[in-house]
Amino acid sequence: MNNPWSKAGSLTLLAGLSLASSSCPSLLAAASTPELPSSAKPNILFILADDAGYGDFGCYGQKTIQTPNIDHFAQEGVRFLQFYAGAPVCAPSRNALMTGQHTGHTQFRGNAKINLRPEDTTVAEVLKQAGYATGLVGKWGLGSEGSSGTPTKKGFDFFYGYVDQTHAHNYYPTFLVRNDMREPLRNVVPDEGPYGQGVATVKVDYSDDFILAEGLKFMDEHKNGPFFLYYASTLPHANDENKVNGSEIPSYGQYAQTIWPEPEKGYAAMITRFDDDVGKLLAKLDDLGVANNTLVIITSDNGAQEEGEHSAAFFNSSGILHGIKRDVYEGGFREPFLARWPDHIAPATVSNQVSYFPDFMATAADLAGVKVPDKTDGISFLPTLLGQPQKQHDYLYWEFYETGTKQAVRMGDWKAIRIPMITGPIQLYNLNADPGELHDVAADHPDLVVKAAADMKEAHVPSLNFVAPGEH
């Protein structure tokens, strides 16, 4: 749909060292674009895990799985406590990240096979126009091969990895894609599906090795900058075609001798391998001498998964939150989110700024010194990174079309959920007092229920691809 929409509202900056209240009675004028130093535009390295939960990293409370590189990274920059993905599954979440649109406006509202259109503007296109070299390695999931939605048609100078998100289930595929061409690997997948998915019987080439190598090479080739590297790891997503143990990894490493079930050994090893990859990416920045002029972000695309026989409860992957992947409760899409930019972001800081994936477009445009595209829903969180006053959302919005239909809206400290969307009753939670969403207090706050319903109505634009209850 091409309907315009608007966003408004500005509250004071939310910051603190714990999960504190996000409401404040005072108001600020809308924060202007921050003044950045006159030095070169910063490189941007955006590292995205696939299905890592809020509690899967040590700096977010994980007690068992080891993530030393990410935990050290948290001491070098800022750790957000209230940052959200774009959706509780990968395709709509990644679309929100790339286009700056929430799921009430974008065509991606579930994990259907949809292609980005020529008129859909991505972060990569914006940064490319600003003089950035743009690269994506890993998982795309926003367009099929040969369509209008491939990475090379949506602003990326270079792509290597999985175009299709179902293909990305298989860590030992028969091919990966370089730009728009398939490159064969030495694995054998006897029952390969139409998108290249399946379970390999001959396992030689582990895809993560190749993806990491290409990411390091891209930074090496563009060390003079500015560059934008979207490092979209497939770890720790399960191979959903492997119903016995979907945690596919060459070695369980330090977890091999535990008495855990095999899928849990694999899951822990995949999280730690992701952490190892992060360490190698950060070391490359140091080796190239560009770490001080690179904004690095680490996050995940949605909440903790329960696939391939893995249990999210085994490692308490959702932490203090309720829900997992595909839920619109907090565990479905509140994510670990860390950022480092030496001499700009204060080290060892923690923020309660409430932001989400649609905000990345506006932030990237701020960093590049260019205009934000029309019809986006984000607000730049660059002021928060720089320790400056921050404009706020009136509300954050999600709608989701899998396992039924669902809506969620966050309004300050309050979170409202409606299942099914449009026609169902509204649940209401105070996230400051009840971050685990254990107590529905809708009956006690009818005024907030009315406001939530109005926000949901305002945010929802009918979709040609997904039909909500009562729509035709």
Strand content: 15-25%
C-alpha termini separation: 15 Å
Helix content: 10-25%
How would you sum up the major sheet? 11 strands, mixed
CATH level 1 name of the largest domain: Alpha Beta
What do we call the CATH topology of the largest domain? Alkaline Phosphatase, subunit A
Low-confidence stretches: 1-33
Structurally, how many domains make up the residues?
Answer: 2
Instruction: Briefly note the structural class of the backbone.
Output: alpha/beta
The Cα radius of gyration reads: 21 Å
Query: For this structure, what is the CATH homologous superfamily of the largest domain?
Result: Alkaline Phosphatase, subunit A
* Count of DSSP-assigned helices: 9
Total strands: 15
Mean pLDDT: 92
Task: Record keyword descriptors for this entry.
472 residues; alpha/beta; Alkaline Phosphatase, subunit A; Arylsulfatase, C-terminal domain; 2 domains; eleven-stranded mixed sheet; four-stranded antiparallel sheet; 9 helices
Describe what you observe in this structure.
With about 475 residues, this protein is an alpha/beta fold. The chain folds into 2 domains: about 45-395, Alkaline Phosphatase, subunit A; about 405-460, Arylsulfatase, C-terminal domain. About 20% of the residues lie in helices and about 15% in strands. It has 9 helices and 15 strands. The protein has helices spanning about 70-75, 90-100, 125-130, 205-220, 260-290, 330-335, 360-370, 380-385, 445-460; strands at about 45-50, 80-85, 135-140, 160, 175-180, 180-185, 225-230, 295-300, 335-340, 350, 355, 395-400, 405-410, 415-420, 425-430. The strands form 2 sheets. Strands 1, 2, 3, 4, 5, 6, 7, 8, 9, 10 and 11 form an 11-stranded mixed β-sheet that branches. It has a 4-stranded antiparallel β-sheet with strand order 12-13-14-15, covered by helices on one side. β13 and β14 form a beta hairpin. α4 (about 205-220) packs parallel to α5. It is globular. The two termini are about 15 Å apart. Residues about 1-35 have low confidence and may be disordered.
